[in-house]
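lol ok so funny story. i was supposed to be doing the assay writeup but got distracted and ended up predicting the structure for this chain instead. priorities right. anyway since i did it might as well share w the group, maybe its usefull for someone
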Amino acid sequence: MSKIRRSSYSASEKLKILKYAKNHGQREAARHFSIDHSMISRWKNREDKLKSAKGESRRIGAGRKANYPEAEASLKNWLIELQNDGIAVTSKVAKFYMKEVLIGEFAQVYPDGENFLASERWLYGFIRRNGFSLRRKGQNDMMKAVHESAMQDELGSGS
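and the output, tada:
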């Protein structure tokens, strides 16, 4: 028995094969592209995810999911607001804000939020999941300093 070489298909390739299968049938598409028909069936069931994936992505739905999705959405919105105002945020401030949001605003939703560790690994995962990027220190250093002191004043007086 000969060994079958495993192949990996990008989302755009899968969608192209699915389109062919809609016009010619799944078994005909399987023969045409030299793949098993069950693969086409699985792709058909996940077609919505394939359409929403980036074209060359091969790992749809892979990766670690957020443990606190609502709190992370709040952090993302806050960061976008600051970004729109031209205010840069340090990683330390982002981690501190996430911890405060979990303890305060989302305490009922996430009772274990007080045990949250805002590690570097969590931060880099959050940045990757939400399409942010880290920037080097530059012209916004003065704005960062002003913002950080304002945050400390605000959080200090809020307690």
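The longest helix spans residues 141-158. The mean pLDDT is 80.
back to the writeup now i swear
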